[in-house]
Structures are given as structure tokens and as C-alpha cells.
User: Fold these one by one.
Assistant:
Number 1:
Amino acid sequence: MSEPPRLLLVRCLAPGCFHEAVLDAKTLFPDGDRPPPGRSERFRCVCGAKRATLEYLRRRPRPPNPCGWI
Ligand SMILES: [Zn+2]
């Protein structure tokens, strides 16, 4: 069995807000109980919105956590 993707990309869905963050899924969910990719209200953006999309990544596309999620 291959390793699950290590990174979680969270993108805010609030109108006019384009914040996103790359989080370490392994640290965040050490027991492996990960939320499914797609829409989620599990995280809160710096703008206060909780609607976001989740996507799992194997590689880091950008600098870490540029927008201060969590
Ligand atoms: Zn936001």
C-alpha cells in the first residue's frame, strides 16, 4: 500500500476571498481519520468563513501556509 498524500490544500470559498493554505495532513490527522476531499466546513479562514474545498497533494506547490489558516 502506498503512502497517502501528505499535504492538504484548503481553499476558501467565500466570495472575494482567495486565501488558501497547504497543511501537513500527517500532523493534522495523525490517526489517519482524514476528511474527504471536496467541500468542507471543518476549517476557518482568516476572513472568518468556514466554507472551503479540501484537496490532498503529494507535493507542496507553494510556500507553506501563506495565509495563516489554523
Ligand atoms: Zn477566506
Number 2:
Amino acid sequence: MQIALIGIGKIANYQMQAITHTEGIKLVDAHDLDSNKAEELPGSVQFHNNLDKMLKKSNADAFLVSTPTSTHFEIAMQVIESDRIAIVEKPLCTSQSEMDALLTAARTRKLPLYTAFHPAYGREVDWWREQIDAQNFELGALLGFESCFADPYYIDGKLTLGAVGKAGAWTDSGASGLSALARLVDPESMSLVDGRMTVIPSLNCAQVQGLGIYRFVENNRMVYGMVDTNWTLGKNYKTTRLRYENGIVELDHAKEAAHLVLEGQEALIFNLATDKPRLVNHYCGVFADLTAMYAKGEDNTRLSEALHHLLFDALNC
Ligand SMILES: NC(=O)c1ccc[n+]([C@@H]2O[C@H](COP(=O)([O-])OP(=O)(O)OC[C@H]3O[C@@H](n4cnc5c(N)ncnc54)[C@H](O)[C@@H]3O)[C@@H](O)[C@H]2O)c1
């Protein structure tokens, strides 16, 4: 599969590294509003000043949108309206009406549409999914979950440089937390109980903190869980705690580690990090899955639709 990149910023750097580690995918073209970004591309990748021209001329099979979140909708729509396939960095867009318009545009043209949910491919998430599938621990039924995705993007009353390109704590990290959970709980079985957002009107972001409380039925029992996103804690802290009948599993998404506490036993610690940066590991998973879906003529629109429903429902409380 050949792809082209739109937006050569921080995340694109990790994406380009992951592409070099993933079989079956190659970066051929790239575009950024800032032509100085061409210097960050490998020699084999052609830089284009004009997106429209790249969409017309490129031999790429799909176009990866890695621009600031506020531009995803417009650029993804431009890709689709050019009859080309879009892969969009999460979140796909920032409202339900934008989501509906993108899905309609892609379906009308019978084009697949992919969302890159990189946190779902965390090594700790893969690891716990494998333990569940192999039934390696007897934890019993899931009783609830609590997920926190915090970044130090609001310090001393101001947004930090890390917030550049992001829409807001909930809009960006809510999509991250929900996509990791979706590997463990069917998002189509979840519904919103409550959403609580902290909005500071003087700041150029949608919210600095956001919380979504969800419920779903597991083994005939109503289960509750919450996803908390926060830019005000002053730290990079990303953890999901899953409470089961016979113990607790804590997935540390920032450190690529897992803690397992079985009732009455010592905690077991699993360090799952590799020599590659965490985000490179994530995008290796994204691209491996993307090439497999593309080869089968599939996309992840249904998953993306379910996750964005849960995300936007919390925003609209
Ligand atoms: N930085 C991270 O850790 C991270 C992690 C995961 C996902 N993301 C997501 O990736 C996306 C990009 O984030 P980033 O941190 O790489 O941002 P960034 O600001 O570092 O890079 C964005 C790039 O897009 C270019 N750009 C802006 N508007 C454009 C347009 N209309 N057309 C073409 N190019 C344009 C900019 O010149 C810049 O080079 C965001 O949606 C963000 O939520 C970022």
C-alpha cells in the first residue's frame, strides 16, 4: 500500500518512523502548508506545495491527514471529494454533524474511510487483550473501569506548546481513552450516563478537562466506567484500571506497563516497553492493521462511528 501524508508535524515524525518498520506500506508523497517541512522528509518522498495538485497527481492509495484537529474535517472532506481514500488522525472531526457529513460523503462515493486510533495499539492494551483471549488469569467478570488521560498542556493559567494542534482535553484524549477501551469492551454496547467538561472561554481550546461516564451490560450486570481527560494536572499520566471480580488490572499507557493484582496475591508488574518510542509502537500497530483492512477491502468506519458517538454525546451534556 502506498500512502501520502498531509501535515508534517510532531505526530507525522512518529508515523514516518513506524512506516519504515511496517511491511507492506510505503510513504510516497507529502504536503504541508509550511514548505520548510519538506526538509523533514526522507529523500524518497516527494513534497507538494499544493494539496489539490497532490490529490490529482499522486499514485498513493490513501492520504493520511495529520494536521491540527480543527482542520481534520475540511481536509478529509477535500480528500474524499477528490475521490481519494482518507486516513484521518483521531479524532476524525469535532462534532456529530461533521462526522455524519464525512460518512455520507465517503459512502456516496463507495470509498473506505479510516481513523487512526493509535492508543488502541498500545503494547499494554495488546498484552491484556492476549491474556484475556488465552484465559491466562482467572479474574472473573468485569465490574467497572476508570481511565485517565492527562497531559501537561495547561500550566500557570496558560496553554503550553503541547496543546498546539489539539482541539481540547476531551476532544483529543477522550477519543484516545475510548479507543483503548474498545479493545476490551464493545463500544456499541456502551451508552453515556453523564459528561462533564471544564471550559475556560479565554483559552484557545475547547476544554481543559472532560469526563465521560458510561454504562454497559456485562454478564447480566450493569457495569459503569469513566474516562477522565485532563490538561491541568501538570503531568503525562495515562492509565486504565479495570476492576474484575477477582482482582484489578492497571494498564499504564504512558509507560507501556501493566500491573495485575489478583485477590490475596502480590502485585505482578509487566514491563512491555521496547527500544522504540511508545508512539512508534502505536503507529506500527495502526499501519499493520490499516494494510490488512485495505487488502481485504475493509475499513474501521463502524468502530469510528461508535467511538465518536460516545465522544460527542459527552460533549453535548
Ligand atoms: N503530538 C502528539 O503527541 C499527538 C499524538 C497523537 C495524535 N496527535 C494528533 O495529530 C494531529 C497533529 O498533531 P501534531 O502534534 O503533529 O501537530 P503539529 O502542529 O506538530 O503539526 C501539524 C502540521 O500540520 C501543518 N498544517 C496545519 N494546517 C494545515 C493545512 N490546512 N494543510 C496542510 N498542513 C497543515 C502544520 O504546518 C504542521 O506542520 C492532531 O490531530 C493531534 O491531535 C498528536
Number 3:
Amino acid sequence: MTVVNTGRRYDDATHARLAADAAQVLSRYPDPRSALLPLLHLVQSEDGFVSPSGIAFCAETLDLSTAQVSAVATFYTQYKRRPNGEYTVGVCTNTLCGIMGGDAIWEDLTERLGIGNDETTADGKITLERIECNAACDYAPVMMINWEFFDNQTPESAADVVGRLIAGEPVAPTRGPDRVGTFKEVSRVLAGFNDGHANEGVAAGAPTLRGLELARAHGWTAPAYPDGDSDSDSGAAPLDAGDTTPGVGEPQSSTDRPAAGAQERSGEQEKTEHGSEKES
Ligand code: FES
């Protein structure tokens, strides 16, 4: 059974452990109060939501009032004010995903699980959310589980993934890490603690890179800036002459760079794993 922390202050051992973590987070910011967002993730990694003791901890650590902390925590949907499920299953029902099957996925999952938007199953496993566009429209319809992508879903594939989560089986997203972490585990990553999974899996899939490939095949390039002034319109700082950072789309830019440690996958493998087979 899940034990929910509803107290106003952590016990001494928990407080000391979180204080040591918080000190690491604060060391990254010149102004302590700038660390509030990661600290809210940190207390979520402890309690599974922003608990009263989590709010008190953030306020005490950053010399803020609990009202100030609560004001921030209630502004962002990633911060939960009541115990969240082990897995947040977000179904994109924005326009493109909706018409590509997101609405059908949503209806099927709400019926199967017996819960609606922002509700959690009685066993504490799944919190269901309708989500807005996740900038993954080229893989519509998309489902997110603890903010990892599950691309090109169908009601059947989505139900299969959720069923495996409920059964306690490990589940891998289409892109990104080799397995989806729990809500608490992912919250700790969002607080700034590396879990070692950041460079696993596919970074940019074939549909995302299609436009880039077409441009290269046809020799298409962006128009030159007027008068050779490369940054006069963009307002961006000019690159240093010695800067060797590759530009967007150039070889070894982030779109070209394979994920460190990831196995090379052929386009055909990619299609087999995440495309047509899933929909059959
Ligand atoms: S509409 Fe769903 S990812 Fe864009």
C-alpha cells in the first residue's frame, strides 16, 4: 500500500537527505530562489506529489513563504497537488493527434481504466491526462508516459502498454531511454539528478529528419542574410570566428549525432519496431 506523506515537516532523516540534495541543486544557481522549480521536482520524487511538507521544505530552504511556493506549484501542470499515479499516461488529443486516432485512444483508455482526466486508478498505478501538442505531430497520434514518447499509437497498442504497466512489466518508449521510469524516478531526473539514461535510444527518428534529408538531396539551403550580416535580423549573438559548433542540420549537429551508446538501427528496423507492425 502506498504511504502518503501529509505531514507538515519531514522526519529528521528525510529532511537531512533532501537538504543534501537541495544543496547540490542550489549550487547551480546564482540566486537561490531560482532553484524552486527543480526543488519542487525533488519533493515530488520523495512524495509523488508536492506535499505540505514538500512546500514547507522548499520555503525553508529558499527563504520564501509557503504561499509563494504554492503559487508556483499550482501554476505548472507538472506539479501535482495530490498523490500522482506511478505512471502518468498522457494522451495527445490536440488537433492532429485527435483526428489521427488520439480521440479514439482517449475514449478507449478512459473506459478501460474507469477514470477521467487528471484522475488516478485505485491501485495508484495510472494517472490519466489529456495533453496538448507535444511537438511530435510527425508521429501522431502520440501518447506520453512520464513524459517519454510512445509514437504512432492505436487504441490496441496504447491499451497493451498500459496493461503492461499495471502488471508491473518494464515498458520502453519509442524514442529515448530503454525503459520508462516511475513518476518518482523521473521527478528526480527533472530535479537535476542524472539517472544515466539520457543518451539511450533514438534521439531524432526518421520522420523528424525527412525534411533535412530532402533538403540535402536537392541542395536546398536557407536564404542568405542580407548584406552578409548573418545576425542582424535574428538578434542572435554573432558566432565567434573560431567557433566550431556545427550549425543546425550540419553534420554532427544534434540532429545528426547518434545517441551515445545507442545501437545503430537501420531505417527498416525502425519501421518494424515502431511503425507498420504496431498498427497491424
Ligand atoms: S498534435 Fe499531438 S503531438 Fe502535436
